[in-house]
Design brief:
The protein is mostly helical. The chain is 80% helix and 0% strand. The protein has a domain of 196 residues. It is a multi-pass membrane protein.
């Protein structure tokens, strides 16, 4: 009896172990923070480091005073106590781009400055998203009214016209062939799905080449790459790394990140003796200014200052470009609404006009 009980306990333990193996590695951990929470965390941590807190003391202070950040910060503290790096502990809670910047700054200094930059950039992103939502409220309300109007016309008005004017309305072809629209919509949807699947199968540098060619959004993405690269390079240069050492650091990053792909490409080109100018001509999204700074012959400190100034310039241009794009959204929506209203009224009035014309 005891032997049978022991076998049952052993088999149950084996089953539990199998189930645990199937669970994801981050099971039970805090999910990734929203952008607003990330911005608060970066800003608070940077301010605490600025006034003299150590990293561990600052995290414990946040854990004790901020309920929104408590669970995530506790997870980071637990990771640090096991000997993991701060960047590794915070990785599941933040975006991949922020992780790459923290990883570089942690290993080569300037963590506080990078945290401030990340907080500022995330708050800018939130501000722009809020602007877009505000701009879209009124057009979205008009679209709902217009859609309701179209449904009412097709459900109640057109049947009344067919009843009153059967000879005209039944023979009158519709201006809008809804079956044709369905076919076109299905074809466009299929093409978009195929293109999307093909896009995600491309290498990371090829993806960047495609995105920068998208109208309106491409220019913003290109400026973001310039800001991202310049800010990271400025961090490395401020710590006295040479150009070759910077390439080695970039190649040590996450393999699916754009900064790793660029580092690997630049390192390979440097080994083969190719010029940086040729690389820029091949990949148009790489800012020419960054290559000029690296080839300027200035001291490392001067190159770092140039990179910092350029990253701030790109940050301001991102803000300006997104403001222009947001200002363009509402007029475009109003134009689409106007065209739809005109088409709907033509579809409604032309059968009536033809019936009246037939009486004379």
């Amino acid at each position: 009896m005891i032997g049978r009980t022991g076998k049952m306990v052993l088999s149950r333990q084996l089953l539990i172990n199998k189930l645990l193996e199937k669970l994801p590695n981050n099971f039970g951990t805090v999910k990734r923070w929203p952008i607003a929470v990330q911005a608060d965390f970066f800003s608070t941590l940077a301010n605490l480091l600025k006034i003299g807190f150590s990293l561990t003391a600052a995290l414990k202070f946040i854990c004790e005073t901020d309920q929104h950040l408590k669970s995530g910060t506790k997870q980071i503290i637990d990771g640090l106590e096991t000997g993991s790096d701060f960047s590794k502990c915070v990785q599941p809670l933040i975006s991949s781009q922020a992780y790459q910047q923290i990883l570089i700054s942690e290993k080569h200094g300037q963590l506080r400055d990078v945290l401030n930059e990340l907080a500022t950039f995330n708050r800018l992103k939130l501000k722009q998203i809020k602007k877009i939502k505000t701009v879209m409220i009124y057009p979205a309300f008009l679209c709902i009214i217009l859609l309701t109007l179209i449904i009412v016309i097709h459900t109640f008005v057109f049947p009344q016209i067919e009843t009153l004017l059967p000879s005209v309305s039944t023979a009158q072809p519709e201006l809008i062939d809804f079956h044709l629209l369905e076919v076109i919509g299905l074809a466009i949807g299929t093409i978009l799905i195929i293109l999307t699947i093909g896009f995600f199968k491309q290498p990371v540098l090829k993806k960047a080449e495609i995105v920068v060619k998208i109208p309106f959004l491409g220019s913003i993405f290109k400026r973001y790459i310039a800001y991202y690269l310049a800010s990271n390079l400025a961090t490395l240069l401020r710590n006295g790394l040479s150009v070759k050492e910077i390439y080695s650091v970039l190649c040590a990053q996450k393999t699916d990140s754009i900064i790793y792909a660029l580092g690997e490409m630049l390192n390979t080109s440097l080994t083969k003796g190719n010029s940086l100018k040729k690389i820029v001509e091949t990949h148009h999204f790489i800012p020419k200014e960054i290559v000029k700074f690296l080839n300027s012959g200035d001291t490392v400190t001067e190159m770092a200052n140039s990179m910092t100034a350029y990253s701030k310039l790109m940050f301001d241009e991102i803000l300006l470009a997104t403001d222009k794009l947001i200002a363009f959204i509402q007029p475009t929506m109003f134009l689409m609404i106007g065209v739809t209203i005109v088409a709907t009224y033509f579809q409604l009035l032309i059968p009536i006009y033809d019936s009246v014309k037939g009486l004379y």
